[in-house]
Amino acid sequence: MLEIVTGFEIAAGINTETRRRISASGRSVRCVVLLDASNPGMAAYARRQQASAQEVGIDLQLEAYPSDVGALTARLKELAALDEIDAVATLYPLPAGMDARTAALLIGPSKDVDGLHPLNAGDLALGAVTRPPATARACFLMSQALAGSLRGREIVLVGASRIVGRPLANMLLDAEATVTIAHAATRDLAAHTGRADIVVTAAGVAGLVGSEHLRDGAIVLDVSINRGPVGLVGDVDLDAVAGRNVTVTHVPDGVGPVTTACLMRNVADAALRSS
User: Fold this and answer.
1) How confident is the chain (275 residues) per 10-residue block, as mean pLDDT?
2) Which domains does the chain have, with CATH numbers?
3) Would residue 217 be called left, alpha or beta, if left means φ above 0 and alpha means ψ between -120 and 50 degrees?
4) pTM of this structure
């Protein structure tokens, strides 16, 4: 029968270790998160990040985006140069005129906690120890927790974004999984997902994954958060898979809590590795 799982236990374990490392360091850890304060969803998400940061001993400061791209560029350069700031994050969407790569370049590799600076992304692609995007790391850890060893596992990623599909594929390859990346132009999605031990879907299309897309015993990490008439839903059609022997992560309490915990771990890594 269908099993829906949350990520709270995994997140708690990550947070415990992050809290221990920060406490043992004997130093304060500070992160600045820039956001569009007029966006209610973004502001609510940032406040949840701030509460999670406080729990592990991180001073996370929220700051509104400057009014124009020139001022934002100057502010990111300033934050990159401040010794008392360990990490900087920018919430999406970015203001008009600024793109993710440029923002990461301005922040610099040492304070980049989103894993988007070319040096950090490049290290990940080369198999080096790095600071991957929090959502990709969360999916990797949840895959291990739910499936055990990933060696030889058939894993299909639905979505090839810079924060989930692409970095996660590199991490899974390093774990010796067999990885397929599907995307918007993929023909016959079910032909790929139907043979997978694990499906990670981050397409942002409600109901995209139905019963015909999954084999018995499959594990599905549903990363997407879509707003529907009955509230928040993922890519998986839960009604369609209700009678199936599959495991699906809860939306938003599956991958979500683990992603936040991984972000706090990235902030701690940025601070403690620079000490």
Assistant:
1) 97 98 98 95 92 97 96 98 98 96 98 97 93 97 98 98 97 98 95 98 96 98 91 95 97 96 98 82
2) 2-6+25-109 (3.40.50.10860), 134-254 (3.40.50.720)
3) left
4) 0.96
